[in-house]
Amino acid sequence: xxxxxxxxxxxxxxxxxxxxxxxxxxxxxxxxxxxxxxxxxxxxxxxxxxxxxxxxxxxxxxxxxxxxxxxxxxxxxxxxxxxxxxxxxxxxxxxxxxxxxxxxxxxxxxxxxxxxxxxxxxxxxxxxxxxxxxxxxxxxxxxxxxxxxxxxxxxxxxxxxxxxxxxxxxxx
Length: 172
Prior knowledge:
The chain is of the alpha+beta class. It contains one helix and eleven strands; from the N terminus they run ββαβββββββββ.
C-alpha cells in the first residue's frame, strides 16, 4: 500500500521509489535474519557426536566452516604469525565440536575458501585453502604442537606449484 503525500500546493502524489526501496531492503534483511535463525536453531539441536566429519573432497566451495567429530580445537583460537613473511592466521570460533572460522591476512585479508580442523590420534590438524588472485587454491596443512604452542606443516603455493615448510607462532 503506498502512502499519499500532500505538497504545499494541495496536490497529491504517490510515495517516492526511495521509500518503497527502503521497505524492500528492510524486508529482505528481516527474511535473511529469520532464515539464519532457523539454520542456527537446527544446527544447535544436533549433538556433537551426531555431526558428521566433512572430508576435504566433499566440502563445498566458499565454505568457511567445517565440522569434525572430536573436541579440543579451542586451543587453536587466536592470532598466529608466520615469522618468515608476516602472514597472520586468525582463528576464531574453534570449539569442542570442531567448527572453525579462519581469516588469513597478508597484511590485508585474503579469501579463505575452506578451513577444517581434524584429529588424527592425539594430533590436532588444520587445513586452510585460499582462493584469491595470487593464491588460486594455495593451501596450508598444519599440525598443532602443544609443547611449542606452534602450528607447523606445509604451505603449497599453487601459483608456483611449490611446497614450503612453514610454522606459525601464537601472537600474545
